Amino acid sequence: MGRTPHLEGDRDSMRTDSTKYTSFTGWIDPPDDVRPALDGDLTCGIAVIGGGMGGMAAALRLAERDQDVVLLEAEFCGYGSASRNGGQIAGAPGGDLRMLSLQSPKKMPVMAKLAEHAGRYVEDLIKTHDIDCDYVANGLVWGAVSPLMMLRVRTQAAILRAFGGGGTVGSREELGLPAGFVGGMRESIGGMLNPGKLARGVRRALLGSSAKVFERTRVSDVRRTGGIVEITTPHGTVRADKVLLATSVYGGEWDITPKNLATPLYVIEIESEPIAPERLAALDWTSRSGIITQHQLMTHYRLTERNTIVCGVRTAQRGRTYPLPDRVPDPGVVRDMGKDLANRFPSLSDVAIERAWGGWIGISPDWLSVAGQVGDNVFYAMACNGHGLCQVPYVTHQLADYIVDGEMPEDLAGIWSDASKYSPSMSLLLQPFVLRAVWGLDRFNDFFNGSRTRARRALRRGRRGGS
Asked: Basic and acidic residues composition bias: which ranges (predicted)?
């Protein structure tokens, strides 16, 4: 933690020789009170399949509405992407807004408003259930590592404003960003938290409700039988009047899920070892805001309450067949991410990557949130796509109210679909060779835009100023 910084150029990558690889998250340990699996048959009014943030939020809301609700989770609540992400509370749609505005111009104003409401919803969820998850409302910054990328940030910010969203564009000094960045745009809502602690807090609230929760209960099939939905598990069957599929990408295992609803991508998070406070202070990251770059495959960086840096994505790997494997990160990808961290923060190039974890996310057909219904009693939502973790629980919370009341909230109506099958365009686009080509394009641009040189030049200036 207190190492003397190496001289510039000593290392091209942070050390990964002792990195711990895990298939679970690095944010929190597994719970010690996992609920028993379903053993036997039962009936209920509404069954929720999936115990991520979406499934837990829906089941909690249904319990609050005095519904007879059962939740089924294959591992334990909060096991998947609910706790494996970067902990970004976003208040604006993510992704390339230029592409999305051309692809879905009517949906973008809805998404700008929905994203803000989703950010507020999660903030209220934290307060309502008194969840200690290290939340700091310091915004999320769309960061630029070069003047050309800053031009893209300004373009994206103008598109966001045109659709009713908001944010503050500024230089790195104005936004309190590290020296290797040129500037960016800070979203008006949101910040950073520990997603493992958030998921654990929501799980605690759910287990304290009237909902019947069965963990370690993998669903093998979902099908209609007459006027009910029959859910098959290894040791019992649930017969429900209505079902909400809150499984993100994992719903692709069943025929009842709309075809092409989600394209599976495996993404990785890495975390450094604890870093001495004086070394973090030397980065001049005064805002401590989380940063997402404007690469085609974005990279995000954030500081944590335990004085580490967490970095995510940079590359993505395509899932091909179901069931999706429970895997650990590829060491080669982790080394590449360590190289990126050393380039972005050259004064920390001697720091080790302490742990790496990853998980599957689903990309919807239009890269935006979608919710819908199959027949009169099966409902579904796909609401992440790398837009931050807020949209998932917000959409399923609204979906729960719709199931109970039959009245569709405005935000839900804006993303609603009755499709039983979607276009395979996203599945065809996100092929392994395309993802690799996009990664290469990002690295090509990094090489020629001088971002590495800029970060090292800032480091040299800092050393001269401190001598």
From this structure: 1-18
User: What's the confidence (pLDDT) of residue 281?
Assistant: 95
221 falls within a domain? yes
Count of domains forming the chain: 1
Give residues with Cβ within 8 angstroms of 401, minimum separation 6.
61, 65, 407, 409
pLDDT at 419: 87
Please report whether residue 467 resides in a domain: no
248-291, pLDDT tens digit by residue? 999 999 999 999 999 999 999 999 999 999 999 999 999 999 99
What pTM was estimated for this model as a whole? 0.94
CA atoms within 13 A of residue 328's CA, in its CB half-sphere: 10
Q: Is the pLDDT of residue 103 over 90?
A: no
End-to-end CA gap in the chain: 22
- Name the residue range of residue 342's domain: 20-443
